[in-house]
Write a structure and sequence with these properties.
signal; single chain; cell wall biogenesis/degradation; 7-stranded antiparallel β-sheet; 8-stranded antiparallel β-sheet; carbohydrate metabolism; 923 residues; glucan endo-1,3-beta-D-glucosidase; 49 strands; 14 helices; alpha+beta
């Protein structure tokens, strides 16, 4: 039996300690009042003898914010939360904050700024860090503030505030921002560098300096002049109150950055949309012009973002712990991704022996304590999750009695927690605007840790109940309490006065953070990314079951976004993120400064690898999108472990099944069921999971359905299409390869068909690529004719600039450039009867598959006629523009984009035939 998860600091294998001071008294709660919510309730005061947020020595703390921000819910669990959550009594400023590319730390004299570009390997090779190291401090002459407070924040930016009674300073910082925007009064602008700076440009109010090998530009108001004296650089503000600094990718970038130096960012906001199997997200900065009229800006995109945008990027790049960041010259950009699949359970298949499964189900439901003694929020959640996975499995084989017994167990335990006044309850903290479950665990009370981990299990269990008993999930019954947990962890509202926006998710970083206070030298951290996505999948299921499409679509956005971040930053799927000196293929924990091959409680390789897998559910299918990474992951685990998994073997078998179901089944078969399940697992679930995937194949992420609760599996050339319809009437689900599936009301349906692509393909051969629905380019033939819809240009002119394009891509291409060869294509397009439409194509080449497109060819658009029927658009229209030169492909990527350049209507692009192809000039 594995040891219970505990998190003592003594086994923390990380270089991130801070001083401990003093011991404070526990706060005494006031008389409690019960707040009714439907049939349930929570308390407005925590139970006697318990604690809320405290310093590390137990002194109660309240949010460290200015009067202007006093009534706003504070977004704990963020990259900058130490500004507002004072975890250490002797540090009223902040711990290091990792915005990327810049790092920050608040001090009495202002804001320390760094740009770490060289990784350091620590912890016996178990951690890589781009640790914060001060290059300079932004302040005002004489500033000596007793503390720093959070004054304003938006989705990924924050404004710290300093005041010493005479001088006042505000700086706005953010993810992806190469700028720091400062507003100050009572003193001159002052930049103090870590060593004497080298000046490479002096334009009076604009100064270029190099510090520790990093290039910075300082911008004061027009008419001001920067003066350098040793390591101190000052400028009078001439009656103004603003100045800014920027880290430059090179000294030659100064002119570009100067253009935007006075366009101050005032707000950041993400919007998202789910439609037809696609998730789109737009990230927008709002600015104000301090001088002139320029309102544009520069922002650096993380790898998980630039992999999925077709928006134009500059040639500027930055180093970060998440790999290369690429710079966009605009206030916004949009990402487009295939939605991650979610199912209530894997489908029924012939691979499962009903009698054996029934026996395993009875073992669970007849246990003396199906909750295994759980009393706190985390372990209760794990037990609820274990039961929730088995309810649809029991239903599949007609065991309605077992199903209903499990449903009643879940209802009883949830209702117990959802009712204030008993041994278990949720309590609302008015100061911190948070809902905490008591008994708490792992710092969910005193540090506000892990709420999204814990409550995800509750929402998931509630979603399964709602699937079978919609009345239980009504707001007037128990659904109101479920939604209150959602508001605490994943609130989609920015105007809710009771809870912050998306507490558990950093929209720009693309993943959650676990620590409520972020009080570590390495920044914030997240260990179990899979428990973060468990909440997102739960939102998809809850929203689907209750008809709340806004929550369903929020879940799709969160899950799809974080799935790519997990692939890149935890599993290094493309092998482009981890430093070569790190020497590991996976990370157990991601930190603001880097990542670590470790967990909070053990150095056991099985748990390091397994913690980002559990719980395995129908919301885990996104893991199957990176099969090569899974194979590397399992191989490393076995190397580090000295052999196959023992303690968490069931989890790791299930993980392996995402890439190699037959191998996973062989390991299951060899065990003959003689093992102890991981605490959140059961033999019933593991048996059903592994044998089902062995029968239907691994998840195929290349094909998506047009509802979030659909998925595709491929074994050989046979695809199995699955969809669950939570609605009260039958519906048809359409998949991106053209397959349709009729799904009865409140049911799961399956069907099979021939697949023309392998979800884990070998490098393609040949130079003619057909288009496939779902964004695939393939050399395979014999596809099914279909079409994709090219979105309208909405009456605007997008000639030369992709606008909501259809994107088709193939990776892993090897080829030798044919001398004198050129790209060619034939694309069948149809505008129907719409007048004045024009479709445009762009072909791009990434020669080495590193994510940078080295050659881009944009062709003149094709004006379609208003007569229904296919027309052929070819390269004969001619090149409009091109960048780069063609070269040999070595594991490269070829991308086709097609969009509406002009017009006010949608059109069609043919897929699945040899009449819509791209031919590349390679052999």
């Amino acid at each position: 039996m594995p040891s219970p998860r505990t998190r003592p600091a003594t086994v923390l294998l990380l270089a991130s300690a801070l001083a401990v001071v003093g011991l404070g008294p526990a706060a005494t709660p006031a008389a409690a009042a019960t707040v009714p919510v439907g049939a349930g309730s929570y308390s407005d005061t925590r139970p006697a003898g318990t604690s809320g947020p405290t310093t590390n020595t137990g002194t109660p703390v309240t949010p460290k914010v200015t009067a202007a921000a006093r009534n706003r819910p504070v977004p704990t669990n963020d990259w900058w939360s130490s500004l507002a959550f004072q975890r250490y009594g002797d540090n009223p400023y902040s711990t290091p904050m990792y915005g990327h590319p810049l790092t920050y730390q608040a001090t009495a004299g202002g804001l320390d700024v760094g740009y770490p570009t060289t990784p350091v390997i620590t912890g016996d090779g178990r951690q890589y860090e781009f640790a914060h190291k001060r290059d300079l401090t932004i302040g005002l002459t004489g500033l000596n503030s007793p503390d720093t407070k959070a004054d304003h924040w938006s989705d990924w930016t924050v404004t710290p505030y300093w005041s010493d009674g005479t001088r006042t300073l505000r700086t706005t910082i953010g993810h992806g921002s190469p700028f720091v925007y400062a507003k100050g009064s009572g003193g001159n602008a002052q930049i103090t560098t870590a060593g004497a700076p080298t000046v490479f440009a002096d334009q009076g109010n604009v100064l270029g300096i190099t510090v520790a090998g990093h290039h910075y530009a300082l911008f004061a108001p027009t008419g001001s002049d920067w003066n350098v004296s040793g390591s101190t650089v000052t400028a009078g503000l001439g009656g103004k109150d603003y100045f800014s600094i920027a880290v430059l990718p090179s000294t030659g970038a100064l002119a570009t950055f100067k253009k935007y130096a006075y366009s101050f960012v005032t707000d950041s906001k993400v919007t998202w949309n789910y439609s037809g199997g696609t998730v789109r997200a737009t990230y927008t900065l709002t600015t104000e012009a301090k001088e002139g009229s320029e309102r544009g800006t520069l922002q650096a995109l993380y790898r998980h973002q630039w992999l999925h945008t077709t928006d134009a990027l500059t040639s500027y790049t930055y180093v970060s712990p998440r790999g290369t960041m690429k710079v966009r010259e605009s206030t916004s950009f949009t990402t487009t991704q295939k939605a991650a699949a979610v199912l209530p359970a894997l489908p029924k298949s012939g691979g499962v022996d009903t009698a054996r499964l029934r026996g395993y189900l009875n073992d669970v439901v007849n246990a003396s304590d199906p909750f295994s003694g759980a009393v706190d929020t985390y372990w209760t959640g794990k037990a609820l999750g274990r039961l929730a996975q088995l309810v649809p499995v029991a239903d599949q084989i007609g065991e309605t009695g077992i199903r209903d017994r499990m449903l009643n167990l879940m209802k009883g335990r949830l209702q117990d927690w959802f009712t204030a006044g008993g041994a278990n309850e949720f309590s609302y903290d008015q100061a911190w605007k948070t809902l905490t479950g008591y008994p708490a665990s792992y710092g969910s009370d005193t540090e506000l840790n892990d709420h999204h981990f814990h409550y995800g299990y509750y929402v998931y269990a509630a979603a399964i109940i709602a699937q079978y008993d919609p009345s239980w999930a009504a707001d007037s019954a128990w659904g109101g309490m479920v939604k209150t947990l959602v508001r605490d962890t994943a609130n989609p509202s920015r105007t809710d006065s009771a809870f912050p926006f998306l507490r558990g998710f950093d929209v720009y970083a693309g993943h959650g953070w676990a620590s409520g206070h972020q009080g570590f030298a390495a920044g914030n951290n997240q260990e179990s990314s899979s428990e973060s996505t468990n909440l997102s999948a739960a939102l998809v299921l809850w929203g689907s079951a209750t008809g709340d499409t806004s929550l369903r679509d929020l879940g799709a956005f969160l899950l799809t976004t974080e799935s790519e971040s997990i692939a890149q930053y935890w599993f290094d799927a493309d092998e482009q993120v981890f430093p070569s000196s790190f020497g590991h293929d996976t990370a157990g924990m991601v930190w603001g400064s880097g990542a670590a091959y470790s967990t909070w409680w053990t150095a056991n390789p099985e748990e390091i690898h397994g913690i980002n897998v559990l719980p395995v559910t129908g919301g885990s299918l996104h893991l199957g999108g990176e099969k090569a990474a899974i194979r590397r992951n399992i191989a490393e685990m076995e190397r580090e472990n000295g052999g196959p998994a023992v303690e968490w073997r069931d989890l790791l078998w299930e993980f392996e099944s995402f890439a190699d179901p037959a191998s996973a089944k062989a390991k299951w078969d060899a065990s003959n069921g003689n093992y102890t399940p991981e605490e959140g697992e059961s033999k019933a679930h593991t048996y059903h999971w592994i044998n089902t995937l062995a029968a239907v194949g691994a998840p195929d992420a290349t094909v998506t359905g047009d509802i979030p609760t659909s998925a595709v599996f491929t074994k050989g050339t046979t695809r199995t299409y699955v969809a669950h319809n939570h609605g009260s009437s039958a519906r048809t689900v359409t998949f991106s390869d053209g397959k349709t599936l009729s799904v009865p009301a409140r049911s799961t349906a399956t069907s099979t068909g021939s697949g023309s692509t392998d979800p884990d393909p070998e490098p393609p051969t040949g130079n003619t690529f057909q288009l496939r629905a779902g964004g695939v380019l393939t050399t395979a033939t014999g596809g099914t004719a279909g079409s994709d819809t090219i979105p309208s240009a909405n009456g605007a002119n997008h000639d030369g600039t992709p606008y909501q394009p259809l994107v088709y891509e193939v990776r892993g291409v090897n080829g030798t450039l044919t001398s004198g060869g050129q790209t060619s294509f034939r694309l069948q397009v149809d505008a129907g009867t719409a007048v004045g439409l024009g479709q445009q194509a762009r072909v791009s080449y990434d020669f080495t598959g590193d994510g940078t497109f080295d050659r881009t060819e944009t062709y003149h658009y094709f004006a379609t006629d208003p007569v229904t029927g296919w027309e052929e658009y070819t390269q004969a229209r001619g090149l409009k523009s091109a960048t780069g030169s063609l070269s040999n492909l070595r594991g490269g990527t070829v991308r086709l984009e097609v969009w509406s350049a002009i017009g006010n209507g949608a059109s069609k692009l043919q897929t699945g035939t040899d009449k819509s192809v791209v031919v590349i000039p390679y052999s």
